[in-house]
Amino acid sequence: SANTNIEATMKKILIFVFAFSIFSALDVIAQCNAESLSSQCIPKLASGFNFLKSYKIEKGGKEYVEYSYVFAKGTQYMINICAPGQNTDGIVVSLFDSKRNKVASSKIDGQFISAIAYPCPATGIYYIQYTFDGSTNYCGGSALGFKR
Predict the structure, then answer these.
(1) Following DSSP, what letter does each residue of 74-127 receive, concatenated?
(2) Which end of the chain is more exposed for a tag (fewer CB within 10 A), N or C?
(3) What is d(CA 128, CA 67) in angstroms, rounded to the nearest whole number?
């Protein structure tokens, strides 16, 4: 009957759309080379800063990406962001102290900057958090550097 043909056709279309959306999602994930972007960030640390650690920024299913690092009093730290095509707009790095107070951010008055510098006033664990503020780019890399 005509109804069974329509139902069968609709099932085929739904299966195709479902499969296509999975492959599209996998393609987007596969295109993020956060490792390479992290490596590109290292030489972009400002003059005088020594490289400490690189970070991958891949959103995946999370609202944000977070890492922690022990900062030392009297040391200045720099965290930069690298993204495909040099467009870091929408990827925001925020720094939180051990009490989870935000102490620095790469979004200032609605403008996105690609690096933050932070003179550390107290030794402790700091949290480096990457969020995606209106960004369609959920992929990037970052480097942490220091100078005394």
Answers:
(1) T-EEEEEEE-GGG--TTEEEEEE-TT--EEEESEETTEE-SEEEEE-SS-EEEE
(2) N
(3) 5
In single-letter form, the type of residue at position 2 comes to A
Select from 56, 59, 60, 74 the least CA-distant residue to 144. 56
Q: What share of the chain is helix, strand, coil (3-state, %, to 5)?
A: 30, 40, 30
User: Are the C-beta atoms of residues 113 and 68 closer than 8 Å to each other?
Assistant: no
Contact status, residue 137 vs residue 37, Cβ threshold 8 Å: no
